[in-house]
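On to my pick:
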Amino acid sequence: MSGAPAVDWVLLALWLLIFVSATLQSVSGFGFALLSAPILTAVLGGPLAVSTVLITGTACDVAILAMRRRLPRPVSGEVWRLALWSVPGMAAGAVLLAQLPARWLQVFVALVVVAAVAMRVRSEPSKETVPSTWAAGAGLTSGALSTSTSLGGPPTVLYLSHRNLTPHVMRDTLVALSLARLPLSVIALAAAGVWEVYPAWPLLIPAALAGQVVGTRLFHRFAASRYDKVVMALLLVSALSAFAAATQ
């Protein structure tokens, strides 16, 4: 008599992680990779963590577009500038992912998350507009962080937040940029020999979509500012946990 099938606790934990990450992303506008990347890197290793965030994050981006009641309005010039400048950064980041020891990669991911949260906490609304030439630095840095850690968002968010864009246009631009860079990221990772895919990744897609739906409903029901402290706390716990695991 055969017993009940064993529960894959790792898969269940990853499903919940992606669900919570997608919910935070929808509620606060950021946090998907910042929450999931440190834990995924500690559990799966760098290459699998990067590909998992890329795949599930793309599902979130597609859901964002699908749930809109109007057509997206990204700034195509910003998308192409950032995407093209990301290419050399992506190549460098893929090499870094291939060469950096797993433990040091965990520490690097944790430090990037802490820095990103600190930037978010200290940032203040500003009407100062930076020139489009700043896209070079933002694209290079974002591309390198994207393929090495999957944390390419903060540099582009910082740049676009000083380009005098409305919140909706900025979000559409970020989503369009993410979709445009997906094939470039895969090519860079494959060329460096570090494109690895978690076998059960299709089961994580529903988690990303469900989190997107729940987070969007929470966002429309309550003020996003009510969640800021919770989001920050979760991100810091995620980063510090990964740092502690890497230094033991």
In short: The chain has one domain: 9-247. The mean pLDDT is 81. The radius of gyration is 18 Å.
